[in-house]
Amino acid sequence: MGAVQEALDALKLTDHHCHGVVTADLSREEFEPLLTEGGAWPGGSTFDTPAGVAVRRHCAPLLDLPRHAPAEEYVARRAELGAREVNRRFLTAAGTDVFCVDTGYTPHRLTSPAELAAAAGGTPYEIVRLESVAEAVAARGVEAGEYAGAFRAAAEEAVRRPGVVGVKSVAAYRTGFDLDPARPSDPEVTEAARHWLAGGGGRLAEPVLVRQLLWTAVDLGLPLQLHVGLGDSDIRLHRSDPAHLTDWLHLTAGTIPVMLLHCWPYQRQAAQLAAVFEQVYLDVGLALHHVGPARSRAVLEEALEITPYRKLLYSSDAYGVAEFHHLGALSFRRALAGLLQDRVDADELALPDALRFAEWAGAHNARQVYRLPWPS
Amino acid sequence: MGAVQEALDALKLTDHHCHGVVTADLSREEFEPLLTEGGAWPGGSTFDTPAGVAVRRHCAPLLDLPRHAPAEEYVARRAELGAREVNRRFLTAAGTDVFCVDTGYTPHRLTSPAELAAAAGGTPYEIVRLESVAEAVAARGVEAGEYAGAFRAAAEEAVRRPGVVGVKSVAAYRTGFDLDPARPSDPEVTEAARHWLAGGGGRLAEPVLVRQLLWTAVDLGLPLQLHVGLGDSDIRLHRSDPAHLTDWLHLTAGTIPVMLLHCWPYQRQAAQLAAVFEQVYLDVGLALHHVGPARSRAVLEEALEITPYRKLLYSSDAYGVAEFHHLGALSFRRALAGLLQDRVDADELALPDALRFAEWAGAHNARQVYRLPWPS
Amino acid sequence: MGAVQEALDALKLTDHHCHGVVTADLSREEFEPLLTEGGAWPGGSTFDTPAGVAVRRHCAPLLDLPRHAPAEEYVARRAELGAREVNRRFLTAAGTDVFCVDTGYTPHRLTSPAELAAAAGGTPYEIVRLESVAEAVAARGVEAGEYAGAFRAAAEEAVRRPGVVGVKSVAAYRTGFDLDPARPSDPEVTEAARHWLAGGGGRLAEPVLVRQLLWTAVDLGLPLQLHVGLGDSDIRLHRSDPAHLTDWLHLTAGTIPVMLLHCWPYQRQAAQLAAVFEQVYLDVGLALHHVGPARSRAVLEEALEITPYRKLLYSSDAYGVAEFHHLGALSFRRALAGLLQDRVDADELALPDALRFAEWAGAHNARQVYRLPWPS
């Protein structure tokens, strides 16, 4: 094991984008869909995916099972230990001491940020998902002409809560990024809100309102996380190519940091933006556990071809099962350490620089962008 | 040689998409264009491509020539042995026992599926190319108002022929996938058919008729193969990005299996679809012989980053020269075996799982999707 | 070191697309922005990028510093030696004997082609950037109805200058390639010129005029270089996907060679075009120094998956600092040699073929396309 791996193993990570874990014990029928973005299908097992293989390999030992334990044994042992103990083991193993938790996606009953971080002995922060704020405003009942102000007030209130350090948008899922980059006018917003509210509100996918949401994020002044690339079947992948954000990034330069999450398969497109826009950062979050340790390095190497080392962050994007908090951290450490160490070994990179870049990506860059205090 | 390579070498492959081979002896002027999607150009040789290099390396020995034999010796020896013997040698060497043959593309006089399979001692099946069916309907003469029914009847008749197990569309070449996903109405089809037939029929590229063709495939109930990505100069690559199929896949979920062929350079986009849509499968067919053994593994590794192991299939997409039936099989076996064996060696994957996934991709997945009997 | 590396190290390269170097001595504040397409940002250093790391590693020794010398020492030593000596060292080390210099981008005071080549003991040629010609025509004052003729006359005059061997367009930056492929009519050009000139001329980004520029390139009969892919924040990456050129390439087949520059991250899309259009060539120029030696091979391997070996060229696309002329050449030699040698070692490629392909890509292909005499 090289010096970079040692340093990264010892480094407590800052996970700048993740979710809570399910608090209930999970049957196999409940567990399997959580391993994938695609759901569980009859006649197959979600363990027969790269993520499922990685779980059997890297998570089974933490449940006192042999590596590559069969799926049925894995799920049985998980149930035997109980959700609380399972979550504790994986969250502790992740070696993460700061969790920035997106609290806006809760189809399951999940741990709160405080509960999640407590299980790992870490510090919780919160990321406010703006679509959820907007949809709650609609659900409470609002006139179209008052929507813009009500959403803005609700967003401002949401980010004033203690521990909130950033906001997030899933515009990639709702409209994609191929939007008019300009801030919509008040009449445009009112008209779009009228249309949306007349349909009963619900899932926000009106292009004008998504644009207004992104511009509200600018006004809020906090780092904005944007889902980019891979996801569930709701994504239209080509519309989430972050290159479509270029005009908007020009218009908003000098305002808020923009954090491109996951990015696969557009990690190179994301890197181009991070290389030329001061405010753009990226991670390969969700990809880490989906492609597993076997391919995380390959993905990260593409992401890092031109990305300045100040611009790479770590996230797990783990949702629901704490296996992914562990697997994300493990994949990230191995991928980055392998990449940097090989360059050190080939004398392409000096070891002190490699150690510096590893620390930046694993913790320092995120702390700086989100203005987090260093843990004492 | 590792255990996975041994198993894959011993496994008879199911080639779920290929074409026949030219029955005539070929001069160098006739042979060279068949090595490429680009034709032969003055002042150069198509042997000076990755595919040409792979042919000289991996096919020359089967003609009793040294590895890397010069192009002129290769073509001379080929002529000396005669097409029948050359085809027999390569088709036998391929180790393929099931051939699903696309019979709808015949600029040359090709072997029938039965002739192709017989040369390898394998079993033939047929894939009906729907554009060819539609164009034949137009060529026979049909009124615009009767086109939809006539095409449907002809397609139903075509797929009732013994041995037909699937259909194919080259929509990627004709319009690309950025189509209105909805089933077109009868008046729309009639209007489009009127326009097409008024122009004399021929190459079907009317967007409405291509949509109607894809929906007819849904009605036929058989697996639908879709050309995706690389091809000849008729392709507009960006319009063949399979992510454009997302809305159509939502509308047709629960109906027919959709087989994404080749996919390069969109293998990751195809993988995203295979990961989230139950009905989507993929291969990297045509890419296997064009990139050769030197790069097939790299392409396959990208394709497999998130693809469930139940969703990968093998095809050679060989056309015209039996070299490509051999080269496709060889590239596939090496690429998949190398990928899986390295993961076994790194203890990222258990050997029994690796063997299972290899068998699935090489034969079992295709047999299941196309409901093929297992050879006795 | 293998035989291919030896051959490539001994081969004088033809750099078919580069720029001059700054003639003035550079302070750190002036030097750092030249290392990146993104400018220098407060609180960070452009040395903390892959390109910056590569400069400290591979350029510092040529300034008599240790490998990985700190940034401040690097810049101090650079100043101590003076621009002339620094440029001489790097340009000599590049091992390039033919420089095709794009003279149309000059935000800094740069060496002329003759000065650049003289510093390396090489031969200069010139590439005329057509947007600069068009903008100069507008700046001199022209009526809209006379613009087409005046631009054409100016372009013809520009390419008649001694040493001009090709033209270049930055259409990728101005409109992207998703243009109507047809030659615009005279009235269309006049109308677009009227609009452009009414706005004071300046940066040419009228789609009709960009189309007319590309068609004028066809009339000029010289190889046309097209910027493709990565660049500064002015690029909209997705619109520079060269697949959008397909219809235009069909219309202009049989006329001029089209040289796709850089291409990253669309190197596979560029390769598809080079594989099927006789007139299309490619390089991975700008990517070579931005991704550095650590990743140039990976990028080149993707570019070469299906590219005929007659179609790959070398360019550095170095601008401003001679470090990049050196780094481009070093990255190219290592990447190509590594790729070819490994295939030779694996017996996938015969050594004589590898040596032939290396010479073609490093010098011969460019000399043939641009009809350059061989240096005596």
Automatic annotation (TrEMBL), chains A, B, C:
InterPro entries associated with the record: Amidohydro-rel, Metal_Hydrolase
UniProt xrefs under Pfam families: Amidohydro_2
Domain Amidohydrolase-related, first and last residues per copy: 149-372
Protein name: Amidohydrolase
The organism of origin for this protein: Streptomyces cylindrosporus
